[in-house]
Design brief:
By secondary structure, the protein is an alpha/beta fold. It has a single domain, classed as Nucleoside Triphosphate Pyrophosphohydrolase (Alpha-Beta Complex), CATH 3.90.79.10. Helices cover 25% and strands 33% of the residues. Strands 4-1-6-5-8 form a five-stranded mixed beta sheet, with helices on both faces. A three-stranded antiparallel beta sheet has the order 3-2-7, with no helix packed on it. It is globular.
Amino acid sequence: MTAHTGVDATRIEALFEEQAGYATPKLGVRGAVFDDADRILMVRETVDDHRWTLPGGWAEVNQTAAQSVVREVFEESGYVVRATKLAAAWDKATQGHHPVPFSITTLFFICRLEGGAPTTSLETSEVGWFGEDAIPAELSVRRTLPRQIARMFAHWRDPELPTEFD
């Protein structure tokens, strides 16, 4: 990794020091929340690139993936949602994201808006609703790709679409 990234070997070793046991993928969750105007909820991250993404993060120990996405959406946006469909399970390495040192699978859920109000957090600086033709150009492609958002719109319009995976 040092040879291909230029990052000091000590820093790369530190990435793996806290990892124990059998190597398994990390599990992320993203919530595709839609309003009555068929707009999708997005948040502007304060961590890393300060760009727009679907709300989400890491799945937590002792929470189901659906519980994790509900928590993440609330923490990052202030909205209360209910996960209604697992739309996709995509491996970051096969989707065209920038390479990362660990295997990551992200679960994308369609979520129904149930309440709350737009509220930023330590992780987000803005909360907004966007139509399919108005997705922000400043997209955090480290987290969510344009075609993944397009697929979430497709799943919203047609709930009978099967779950996508790679």
